Amino acid sequence: MSIVDQLYDQTIKMAAEIEANPQSDTLVEDFDAFLIERDELMRDIQHELTTPEKEKIKEIIQTDQKMAKQLTDIQQGIKADIQAIQRKKVKQQNYQNPYQPMTSDGVYYDKRK
Questions:
Q1: Is this model's pTM higher than 0.85 or not?
Q2: Number of C-beta neighbours around residue 60 at 10 A
Q3: CA 109 to chain centre
Q4: Element containing residue 58 per DSSP (H, E)
Q5: CA-CA distance, 44 to 61, in Å (whole number)?
Q6: How far is the C-alpha of 35 from the C-alpha of 10, rounded, in Å?
Q7: Which pLDDT score is estimated for 66?
Q8: Residue 107: what are its φ and ψ, rounded to 5°?
Q9: Model confidence at 108: pLDDT above 80
Q10: DSSP characters for 90-102?
């Protein structure tokens, strides 16, 4: 099996894993390991690519773009979850102690000295 074939198989495998388990706890670790292995395989490509290998490289690039979009969507979802948790925490603190957040509404400021 050539290096390009190994790279293609690894890319397809990782894309399937991202699509199957987008909420997996080990997704970040698996993706990190995938990037390390892929980097090593890409460094090993030394020869001129044949036409079928060039086609596989094009498919790899398309799959990488799809994975990047999926990972961006996952990241946005995580950010939204964190923001919702933070808002919930602030609302809970305000409910438990309603006089804690002192606002400047209704405060008179005297400009004279």
A1: no
A2: 19
A3: 48
A4: helix 51-96
A5: 18
A6: 10
A7: 94
A8: -95, 135
A9: no
A10: HHHHHHH-TTSS-
* Beta carbons of 71 and 24 less than 8 angstroms apart: no
CB burial of 36-50 (b: ≥16 within 10 Å; e: otherwise) equals eebeebeeeeeeeee
Helix axes 3-20, 27-44, angle to 10 degrees: 170
Asked if residue 107 has pLDDT above 70, the reply is no
d(CA 27, CA 108): 55
Q: Burial level of 35, CB count in 10 A (0-12/13-18/19+)?
A: exposed
Q: In this structure, are residues 35 and 1 in contact, taking their beta carbons and an 8 Å threshold?
A: no
Specify whether the CB–CB gap between 28 and 76 falls below 8 A.
no
DSSP single-letter state for residue 47: S
CA 48 to chain centroid, in Å, comes to 33
* 12: its two tokens: 């397809």
Q: How many other C-beta atoms can be found within 10 angstroms of the C-beta atom of residue 64?
A: 14
